[in-house]
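Narrative of accomplishments. A recurring question from our advisory board has been how the design workflow behaves on a single, concrete structure rather than in aggregate. To address it, we present the structure tokens for one chain from the evaluation set, followed by the sequence designed for it. No filtering or post-editing was applied between the two.
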């Protein structure tokens, strides 16, 4: 049975993950290793007046004064209006959010280190905290960074002109939408173990990251080390979702202390640290005016987007990424030519914003899809029909939209047709009416989106980032025994990349993936890669492996042809053998001739051998676009505000499906996270900037009881610009659920003239909306 592209094979990595044999940062133990704990700020904003170390442990406590040779984390951008925030790895002079690191304490155990941390005394001069982005934009607001003169990391302005849209609009829709701040909550939090290797003369850092080569660059810049003196190893990583693709201050300070003390130092993040001090995400506010004709065709869109970035700009993706993505992606899959959008990236006294699965698109999809339903209600048409009319049509592909997004391939309206058919839209309307007659309120909602995946050099350069991805590299070789080794600087942190890139190699070399060993995530062993983010793994790493494996297959045929005394054109590869008619030699025979019996080879043999390193990026590097439509049926209990999801359908097109089994897992996991965004997850602060959701008793995650049985179907429109037609899919399913579910809630509550425009759509918010439209009900209660 083939284990190449398209095969539904189990994940290679699950053998160790499910048997407890995986090795995470927390499992590594080195001789003389100590543990670290951090003194963290108890206030959101204030000046540091004095830090007093406990006398008995003064040599085990380090502050920014000790680290005078460490540069701050500085995420530069070339974009106009951008303000730079220097984040010292331990707070210098001032703290800007609750949980900011002030001192690092070390001891033989984590408990002892925490005991020392409790004895460190810090005196503050409190300053007024900013917890609201709207307030932070006001001219008299306190300043998070005094040298800026305002609280704006960045403003952007896109304007293609709206006069024609205004003049011809039969319908004008004005709305405001709000999305909540969230935490990523990977199963494994951040973790770092650093030591100095005297033999290699290297700082060796085991860290839970998606981007080991990037982290090496960041560490070398902050610590003033040559990159050749830094080796970063990402062992097994228990989830990332974007949280682990930026340089963390803890990684820098742990590395510095390890070098300073000459002993291995480890820090592992606990859940409270993650919820309080870990980077946050997704806090957006939208003001939208949509102009449409009397059939609901959008003529133009006017938008203002405010993103609450927090205190610091993360490296390397900066504070620009979220708002820039929001402004560029708000039009989504819809074809209109008049668009204006102004974005504000605002500094507040909260942890910095990190890219999270979907990066801005869950927010823009929520805003756009609720706007589509509002237009449909205004013109009296079925929302799915209005969507189909507005989407880029199949015969328009490839299509460049109003913000210059280049949609490479697909049939967007067909995804709506298939989702509506699968969920039974026509039958549902009759069932909905019957349920309302019995006092039950059912609703149906749709959400359509595009996911820009594997965007490359031109896109990241346009965002003004300090580090721009280029060619992805991979190495493929045949070992002396005829098995295959693949090395990639990308990394697998739950998405199954070890398996899928092995399948790409198997496609060319016909060797079963059980005989293909994949090495990833070690800067000392793998070719350079900027890592795993932006749904780039299969397009970029898979493309590089494909290119290298194709070249290697050609070399195998040349060697086999000599051994079989025929032309390379006569050779075909199958089942790990090279055939010429009925005669064949195995890969082991071919490898033996190269490594162990070169006397069997001709004098003019290709000296490049059986090991190939290749670089790859797609023919276009503005990204390839996956798309999907999600549809949900919900029941809303108008007495409690509780939402039950009765049915949930996903119809997606991600190009060539390398492994359908893994693809389904990606879709289910992403949709589960999207349901968390829609109904449950919210980081809350009081007026003093104190986090109110610092445990999993307060920050609510969806579990099996809250999730529906997902139904999933696919189209397979190949991208004409990537190897094998592959598109990225890792983020997609997390983008659409909020739009589908809240549209379904609003559909259910239409008899009450209730419209929710904020997520999560909690029972409290639903009841408040119902009470606001029914004063008599409020008085009765």
């Amino acid at each position: 049975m083939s284990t190449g592209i398209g095969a539904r094979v189990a994940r290679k990595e699950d053998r160790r993950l499910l048997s407890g044999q995986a090795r995470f940062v927390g499992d590594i133990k080195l001789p003389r290793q100590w543990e670290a704990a951090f003194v963290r700020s108890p206030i959101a904003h204030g000046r540091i007046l004095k830090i007093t170390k406990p006398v008995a442990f003064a040599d085990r406590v380090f502050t920014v004064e000790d680290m005078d040779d460490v540069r701050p984390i500085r995420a530069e951008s070339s974009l106009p209006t951008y303000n730079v925030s220097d984040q010292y790895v331990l707070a210098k002079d001032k703290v800007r959010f609750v949980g900011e690191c002030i001192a690092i304490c070390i001891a033989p155990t984590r408990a002892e280190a925490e005991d020392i941390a409790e004895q460190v005394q810090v005196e503050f001069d409190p300053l007024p905290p900013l917890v609201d982005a709207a307030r932070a934009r006001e001219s008299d607001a306190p300043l998070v960074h005094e040298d800026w003169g305002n609280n704006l990391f960045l403003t952007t302005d896109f304007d293609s002109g709206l006069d024609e849209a205004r003049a011809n609009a039969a319908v004008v829709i004005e709305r405001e939408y709000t999305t909540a701040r969230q935490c990523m909550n990977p199963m494994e939090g951040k973790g770092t173990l650093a030591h100095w290797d005297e033999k290699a003369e290297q700082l060796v850092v085991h860290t839970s990251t998606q981007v080991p080569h990037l982290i090496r660059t960041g560490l070398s810049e902050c610590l003033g080390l040559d990159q050749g003196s830094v080796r970063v190893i990402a062992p097994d990583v228990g989830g990332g979702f974007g949280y682990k693709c930026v340089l963390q201050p803890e990684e820098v300070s742990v590395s510095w202390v390890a070098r300073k003390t000459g002993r291995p130092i480890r820090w592992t993040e606990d859940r409270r640290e993650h919820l309080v001090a870990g980077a946050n995400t997704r806090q957006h506010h939208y003001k939208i005016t949509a102009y449409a004709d009397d059939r609901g065709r959008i003529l133009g869109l006017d938008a203002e987007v405010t993103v609450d970035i927090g205190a610091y700009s993360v490296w390397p993706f900066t504070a620009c990424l979220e708002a820039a993505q929001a402004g560029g992606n708000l039009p989504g899959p819809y074809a209109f030519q008049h668009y204006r959008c102004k974005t504000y990236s605002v500094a507040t006294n909260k942890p910095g914003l990190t890219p999270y699965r979907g990066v801005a698109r869950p927010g823009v999809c929520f805003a756009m899809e609720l706007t589509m339903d509002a237009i449909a209600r205004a013109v009296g048409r079925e929302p799915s029909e209005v969507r189909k009319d507005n989407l880029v049509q199949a015969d328009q592909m490839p299509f460049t939209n109003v913000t210059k997004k280049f949609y490479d391939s697909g049939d967007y309206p067909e995804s709506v047709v298939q989702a509506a058919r699968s969920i039974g839209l026509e039958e549902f309307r009759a069932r909905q009416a019957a349920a309302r007659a019995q006092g039950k309120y059912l609703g149906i909602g749709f959400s359509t989106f595009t996911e820009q995946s594997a965007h490359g050099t031109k896109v990241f350069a346009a965002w003004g980032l300090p580090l721009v991805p280029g060619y992805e590299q991979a190495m493929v070789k045949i070992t002396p025994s005829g098995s295959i080794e693949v090395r990639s600087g990308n990394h697998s942190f739950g998405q199954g990349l070890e398996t899928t890139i092995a399948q790409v190699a198997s496609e060319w070399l016909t060797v079963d993936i059980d005989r293909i060993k994949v090495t990833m995530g070690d800067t000392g062993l793998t070719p350079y890669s900027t890592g795993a983010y932006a749904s780039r793994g299969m397009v970029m790493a898979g493309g590089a492996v494909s290119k290298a494996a194709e070249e290697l297959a050609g070399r195998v045929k040349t060697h086999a042809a000599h051994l079989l005394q025929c032309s390379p054109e006569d050779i075909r590869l199958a089942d790990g053998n090279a055939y010429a008619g009925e005669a064949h030699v195995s890969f082991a025979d071919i490898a033996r001739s190269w490594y162990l019996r070169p006397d069997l080879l001709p004098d003019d043999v290709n000296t490049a051998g059986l090991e190939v390193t290749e670089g790859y990026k797609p023919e276009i590097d503005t990204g390839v676009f996956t798309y999907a439509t999600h549809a949900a049926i919900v029941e809303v209990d108008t007495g409690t505000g509780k939402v039950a999801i009765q049915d949930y359908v996903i119809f997606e097109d991600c190009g060539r499906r390398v492994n359908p089994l893994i693809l389904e897992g990606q879709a289910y996991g992403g949709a589960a996270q999207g349901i968390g965004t829609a109904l449950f997850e919210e980081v809350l602060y009081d007026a003093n900037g104190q986090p109110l959701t610092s445990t999993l008793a307060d920050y609510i995650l969806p579990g099996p009881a809250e999730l529906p049985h997902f139904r999933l179907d696919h189209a397979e429109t190949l991208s004409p610009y990537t190897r094998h037609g592959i598109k990225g899919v890792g983020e997609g399913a997390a983008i659409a659920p909020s739009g589908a579910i809240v549209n379904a809630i609003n559909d259910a509550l239409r008899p009450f003239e209730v419209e929710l425009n904020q997520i999560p759509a909690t029972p409290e918010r639903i009841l408040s909306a119902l009470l606001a439209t029914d004063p008599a009900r409020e008085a009765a209660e």
